[in-house]
C-alpha cells in the first residue's frame, strides 16, 4: 500500500522530513477493522511527534503518523461485532500503532464508530480526535454535570480544534456560561459562532475575565501554553473548582497554589484508553457514535477551515507547515 512516513526527526523544510513509501497491507488483530482511508485531519500532535520520535537517530522502519480518519471497512477480525465490510467509519486511532497517513489502516473496533451521514468524509475527518478530547475533558475529567445551570467554564485556546468542540458541546449539552480566550477579532468571532458567551484576551487573562465583576470560574479547560497561564488559572479558579489540561510542560509548576481552594488539576490524553487497553476502552466508540448523531442532528458543526488533496509527502509537508504556525483556526483536513 501507499503511505507517507519518516525515518528521522527533521525540520519540515528538510527534503526527507516526510517520505512517500510502499508498505505491506496491515495484518489484522482479532478485534481489528481494516479501513481504506478516505480522509484525515492533521493535528498539532502530528507535528510534535514527527519532531520527537526520531530525535536520537534514524529509525529502522518508516514511522506512520496520523490519528483522525474516515474510511470504508475492507475486512473485519473474527472478534469484531457491529461492523461489516462496506461500512463508513471514523476514529482517532491509537498512538501505539501505525497511523492514518496510508491507504489502509488497522484499528481496534472498540475505538471506532459509524461516521455521520450528513457531511462529507473530509469534513467528518475534522472531528474524531478533538471530539473525544473535548468530551472526555468536559464529562470524564472536569465531571461537568449535564444540564447544570449558572457555573462558568473558561476555555483557554477556544479557537483551536479542541476548543471549538469543547465550546459547542458545552453550549449544547450543559447550562454553563462559556468564556473563551481569543486575541484576534477573527478567532473571537469564531468562538462566538461555536457558542461562547464571552471572549477574553489571554494576554491579560485575570483582568479580562474579571472585567464585568466575575471573580472566579468553576471550570477551566486549558488547551494552550500551560506554564504561561498557570498563575492566572490558579487565581481565577473557584474554590473546589476543576482545571483540566492537555498541554504538557517541562517547567516546574507550584501545584500547592491550588491547595487553599481544594481545587483539582486533571490531565486529559485521548490516547490513554487505547494505550493501556483500559476496561472502558469501548467508551470511545460510544462517544464517537454520540458525536455522529449530534452532527447528523445539526447540533454540532464540523470545524474544517482548510482542505488539501491527495496522500503524498508533498501534501502532508504543506499541512505540517501550516499546523506549525500555531495560528490555525479550526482544523486542516486532507481528502485522499
Automatic annotation (TrEMBL):
Q: Which UniProt keywords apply?
A: Metal-binding, NADP, Oxidoreductase, Zinc
Q: What span is annotated as the signal peptide, if there is one?
A: none
Report domain Enoyl reductase (ER) positions.
5-334
> Known Pfam families for this protein?
ADH_N (PF08240), ADH_zinc_N_2 (PF13602)
Q: Which family does it belong to?
A: Belongs to the zinc-containing alcohol dehydrogenase family. Quinone oxidoreductase subfamily.
Protein's UniProt name: Zinc-type alcohol dehydrogenase-like protein
Q: Which organism is it from?
A: Hoeflea poritis
Its lineage opens with:
Bacteria, Pseudomonadati, Pseudomonadota, Alphaproteobacteria, Hyphomicrobiales
Amino acid at each position: 500500500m501507499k503511505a507517507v512516513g519518516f525515518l528521522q526527526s527533521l525540520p519540515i523544510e528538510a527534503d526527507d522530513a516526510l517520505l512517500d513509501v510502499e508498505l505491506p497491507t496491515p495484518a489484522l488483530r482479532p478485534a481489528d477493522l481494516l479501513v481504506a482511508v478516505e480522509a484525515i485531519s492533521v493535528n498539532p500532535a502530528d507535528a510534535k511527534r514527527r519532531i520527537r520520535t526520531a530525535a536520537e537517530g534514524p529509525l529502522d522502519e518508516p514511522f506512520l503518523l496520523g490519528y483522525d480518519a474516515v474510511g470504508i471497512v475492507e475486512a473485519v477480525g473474527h472478534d469484531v461485532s457491529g461492523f461489516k465490510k462496506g461500512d463508513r467509519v471514523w476514529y482517532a486511532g491509537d498512538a501505539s500503532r501505525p497511523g492514518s497517513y496510508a491507504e489502509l489502516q488497522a484499528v481496534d473496533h472498540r475505538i471506532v464508530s459509524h461516521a455521520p451521514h450528513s457531511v462529507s468524509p473530509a469534513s467528518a475527518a475534522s472531528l474524531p480526535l478533538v471530539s473525544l478530547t473535548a468530551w472526555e475533558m468536559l464529562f470524564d475529567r472536569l465531571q461537568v454535570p449535564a444540564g447544570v445551570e449558572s457555573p462558568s467554564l473558561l476555555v483557554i485556546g477556544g479557537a483551536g480544534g479542541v476548543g471549538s468542540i469543547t465550546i459547542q458541546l458545552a453550549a449544547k449539552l450543559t447550562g454553563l456560561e462559556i468564556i473563551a480566550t481569543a486575541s484576534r477579532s477573527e478567532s473571537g468571532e469564531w468562538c462566538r459562532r461555536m457558542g461562547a458567551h464571552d471572549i477574553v484576551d489571554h494576554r491579560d487573562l485575570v483582568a479580562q475575565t474579571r472585567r464585568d465583576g466575575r471573580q472566579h470560574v468553576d471550570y477551566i479547560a486549558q488547551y494552550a501554553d500551560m506554564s504561561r497561564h498557570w498563575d492566572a488559572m490558579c487565581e481565577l479558579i473557584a474554590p473546589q473548582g476543576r482545571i483540566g489540561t492537555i498541554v504538557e510542560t517541562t517547567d516546574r509548576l507550584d501545584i500547592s497554589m491550588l491547595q487553599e481552594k481544594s481545587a483539582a488539576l486533571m490531565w486529559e490524553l485521548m490516547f490513554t484508553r487505547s494505550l493501556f487497553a483500559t476496561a472502558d476502552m469501548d467508551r470511545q466508540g460510544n462517544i464517537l457514535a454520540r458525536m455522529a448523531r449530534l452532527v447528523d442532528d445539526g447540533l454540532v458543526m464540523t470545524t474544517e477551515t482548510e482542505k488539501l488533496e491527495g496522500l503524498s509527502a508533498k501534501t502532508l509537508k504543506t499541512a505540517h507547515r501550516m499546523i506549525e504556525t500555531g495560528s490555525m483556526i479550526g482544523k486542516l483536513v486532507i481528502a485522499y
